[in-house]
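Why do we care about 3D structure at all? Because function follows from shape, and shape follows, mostly, from sequence. That is the central idea of this module. The next example makes it concrete: a single protein chain, its amino acid sequence, and then its structure expressed as tokens.
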Amino acid sequence: MENLFWSLVRSLGRGRLTRVDDSGPTQLVQMQLSANETRDHTPRLAQYGFQSNPPAGSDAIAVFFGGDRTNGAVIACGNQEYRVKGLATGEVCISDNRGQKVYLTQAGIVIDGGGLPMRFTNSPQATLDIPTVHCTGDLNVDGNVTSGKSVTAAQDVADQGGTKTMAGMRETFDGHDHDVPQGGVTSNPLQRME
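And the structure:
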């Protein structure tokens, strides 16, 4: 009976990760369970589709099969320092140690790049099936801008590497004149491009 008790006691462990090896098919971690016990090359299991490489010092829970401390797997991992706090009931947040977040709030989805660039790659097309896209900064487009509906901008619109602008086109049109074959020059257009 005493052996069964110690087997159950030894079947769970809580500690902190000290190192992560993410190079193989299974992530392997080194885990400090106590001042006298460190487990190395312990597999860390995660939910399908959610991969992470937790920083050193992250909390971890491990199970050890049959109480054998050499035969375990980390089944849960968290980090007190980088945990997003104050979530309301039902909210979900995916985050990292650099401040990047995808936050499913009660009021809508918030994506925070943490001051780092964002990139969407390897897709033939991205579709925003929404009535309005609002951009508070500049919009740089390497390709063409086409529309079946209106495209508006509160500031200027430029193309050809920024050398040609809509404001410049208006200025050229509104100020242009023509030579008259009988002599002289026409006045500027009566109908200005607004």
